[in-house]
Write a structure and sequence with these properties.
Number of domains of chain B: 1
CATH superfamily of chain B: Formate dehydrogenase/DMSO reductase domain
CATH architecture of the largest domain in chain A: 2-Layer Sandwich
Largest interface: A-B, 99 and 97 residues
Number of helices of chain A: 8
Helix content of chain A: 25-40%
Distance between the termini of chain A: 52 Å
Distance between the termini of chain B: 33 Å
CATH class of chain B: Mainly Alpha
Oligomer: heterodimer
Number of strands of chain B: 0
Largest sheet of chain A: 4 strands, mixed
Number of strands of chain A: 11
Largest sheet of chain B: none
Order of helices and strands of chain A: HEHEEEHEEHEEHHEHEEH
Helix content of chain B: 55-70%
Shape of chain B: globular
Strand order of the largest sheet of chain A: 9-1-11-10
CATH topology of the largest domain in chain A: Alpha-Beta Plaits
Order of helices and strands of chain B: HHHHHHHHHHH
Shape of chain A: elongated
Number of domains of chain A: 2
CATH topology of chain B: Formate dehydrogenase/DMSO reductase fold
Strand content of chain A: 15-25%
Chain lengths: 319, 322
């Protein structure tokens, strides 16, 4: 299941089918999440359901000061993370006609208007998954559903995936030394169940299903939002032409991705790997040639000294 | 706490000019994750480089019968590659499972490729040192010496890809120059060690390697910083900036000594030590620059925003703006 060198970029390749590329001849359709943040109410049921189902350990109970967000971000022990963005000025967004689909409007403690953005973040299950590419043990693997999971019994905690992920999703857990992240509930979807977070979501902000269908649903939803005066609604990660070949878990956002702590133009670092190996080969060859030339020179000089009989101690000759 | 999420403005505390300084972030939180690697890794980058280039130097010295230098170079190669392996295993979250590295061969994983290179190189370096030291099995010694010399440059250069193949902004941005920088730095360290370990009249080959290596290191670094322009800030600011500056001063000093006064025992030894230290600090500086660039979201968001706006400050084609 190692990703082949051919993955190192062909922009004209047929539509990406990561499961087939990983060697599954006959496989179910690729599944994923569509997280529609316009209906997220920030209840964190997804965070809790994920923890419960996956038996993810507690990762610190403290107050961050970041609105209602006390898990702060995705980590080895937080596989769903709800972001809370408070905006005291209230952007044009929430003056739109439909309060029920827009960011919720509220009044802050100091009396003036407050607008909210809430979004449940998760592993993107990238088409071109850098974490999987760089994993040296094969612990990270592609499933038949096109998702990316860590095999905990193989991971040796090298931490390379942590630095490779363009979203800062996967992390090494202090307590067991292994890398952990969302599995898209591999143990549930195989039995035809929804992942725990999608099951628990009371507003269907988190939708699970075949990726093709989710993309259609998402397109319709964006068009609908644009129609009712939410021009800032946009999809994030649904485009297979993006830097990671499209996400397996994509989003509808109501502001720029970076407002939610997401990278605006993520790239799988392994896309440049061919070029990197070339430079490394040239660099290594340059050193080898330098050393060889130096040795030839020394040998020639020594032979010259020997012939001219200018001293037996001349090991090395002149520079 | 004020309601200030998704604030406009600069991310981290170190406010400096950076391309397109206006950007948003989520409470100033990082976008990519800072490496979980500890000081073991920059130590390994230095020691592995020292070992790799020393094996090349040892072969040259062995060939012309410069026993003192060959012995020093082989010994330091064997010693530092052993320490490297220890550092690499120690840095794992689950050290007992190091062996899992050997269950697959993956060209898409520089760490996998590197593990295989090290697995071939390490026994050769140890054999070359052992045989030479004990003056036993000269044929095996010669074969191991040649093998280690052939693989040494790969040991020194692949680490540039190891760092480049990450989402850590300062490392990925430097992926073009890092292999050259690391190979130069490795040669500088190996040459420097030779100058430190043996008398100047026996250290000519070492001094020559040191001059070539230090020049390559300084050149690659200059090219890197010039190409990145304002994006080289993580290499210049704060603690990594201090490390990089100290490294440059030491390498320039050592280079000058290696050129001008290599026949003077004390000066040559000091120059060698400066080159060694300079090489080590370079690796730590680059490592720390990567950490700093991952911590501050401006280094992730800024260039990506620029790319989307069509600023040609990076080569890959921009994806469609939603």
């Amino acid at each position: 299941m190692t990703s082949a060198a051919s993955r190192l970029r062909d922009p004209f390749a047929p539509p990406p089918d990561p499961a087939a590329r990983a060697g599954y001849a006959d496989h179910p359709p690729r599944v994923g999440f569509f997280t529609d943040t316009s209906v997220c109410i920030g209840c964190k049921a997804c965070e809790v359901a994920c923890k419960e189902w996956n038996v993810v350990p507690e990762d610190g109970i403290s107050l961050s000061g970041m609105s209602y967000d006390n898990t702060v971000g995705l980590s080895a022990s937080t596989w769903r993370h709800v972001a809370f963005i408070e905006r005291p000025d209230g952007p044009p967004a929430h003056t739109g006609p439909s309060a029920d689909t827009g960011p919720s409007a509220d009044t802050g403690a100091d009396g003036h208007d407050l607008s909210w953005l809430m979004a449940s973040d998760v592993c993107k299950h990238c088409t071109d998954a850098a974490c999987l590419d760089v994993c040296p043990t094969g612990a990270l693997m592609r499933t038949e559903f096109g998702t990316v999971v860590v095999q905990d019994d193989i991971c040796n905690g090298c931490g390379y995936c942590v630095s490779a992920c363009p979203f800062g999703v996967i992390d090494r857990r202090q307590s067991d030394g292994g890398a952990h992240k969302c599995t898209l509930c591999y143990d549930r979807i195989g039995d035809g169940l929804k992942p725990a977070c999608a099951k628990a979501c009371p507003t269907e902000s988190i939708q699970f299903g075949p990726l093709d269908e989710l993309r259609e649903i998402a397109q319709r939803r964006v068009a609908e939002l644009h129609e009712i005066g939410q021009p800032q609604a946009r999809l994030y990660g649904e485009d297979p032409a993006d830097g990671v070949g499209g996400f397996g878990a994509f989003f509808l956002l109501l502001d720029e991705p970076e407002v939610y702590g997401l990278p605006p133009d993520p790239q799988a670092t392994t896309r440049d790997l061919g070029r990197m190996w070339r430079h490394a080969a040239i660099a290594a060859a340059s050193l080898a040639v330098t050393l060889a030339a130096s040795a030839v020179w020394d040998t020639a000089v020594r032979a010259g000294i020997g012939q001219h009989g200018s001293g037996p101690q001349g090991a090395g000759g002149r520079l | 706490m004020t309601a200030g999420a998704g604030r406009r403005g600069r991310g981290g505390q170190e406010a400096q000019q950076v391309p397109d300084a206006e950007f948003s972030s989520y409470y100033g939180r990082p976008v990519v994750r800072e490496t979980v690697w500890g000081p073991d890794i920059p130590s390994y980058l230095f020691l592995g480089g020292l070992a790799g280039a020393s094996s090349g130097l040892a072969a040259g010295a062995h060939l012309i019968g410069n026993r003192k230098l060959a012995l020093a170079a082989k010994s330091v190669a064997a010693g530092s590659i052993s320490l490297s392996m220890a550092a690499l295993v120690h840095d794992l979250g689950r050290p007992a499972r190091f062996i899992n590295m050997l269950r697959v061969v993956k060209v898409t994983s520089p760490m996998s490729v590197g593990t295989w290179i090290l697995s071939a190189y390490t026994p050769l370096a140890l054999t070359a040192a052992g045989c030479y030291l004990t003056r036993k099995l000269p044929l095996i010694d010669a074969a191991a010496t040649i093998g280690a010399a052939a693989l040494g440059p790969a040991v020194a250069s692949y680490t540039g890809v190891l760092l480049g193949d990450t989402a850590t902004p300062a490392w990925h941005d430097a992926h073009r120059e890092l292999p050259y920088l690391f190979v130069g730095s490795a040669a500088s360290a190996a040459g420097g060690f030779g100058m430190l370990a043996v008398r100047p009249d026996q250290a000519r080959q070492a001094a020559r390697l040191a001059v070539v290596g230090a020049t390559a290191e300084l050149t690659a670094r200059h090219l890197l910083e010039r190409r990145l322009g304002p994006g080289a800030e993580p290499y210049r600011a704060g603690r990594p900036g201090t490390l990089m500056m100290a490294a440059e001063a030491l390498t320039v000093g050592g280079l000058a000594g290696a050129i001008l006064a290599r026949r003077h025992r004390v000066v040559a030894a000091c120059s060698g030590a400066a080159l060694l230290l300079g090489s080590a600090l370079t690796r730590f500086g680059i490592f720390e620059a990567g950490r700093a660039s991952a911590r501050d979201p401006k280094y992730t968001v800024g260039p990506q925003r620029g790319r989307l706006r069509g600023h040609p400050d990076r080569e890959p084609p921009a994806a469609e703006v939603q």
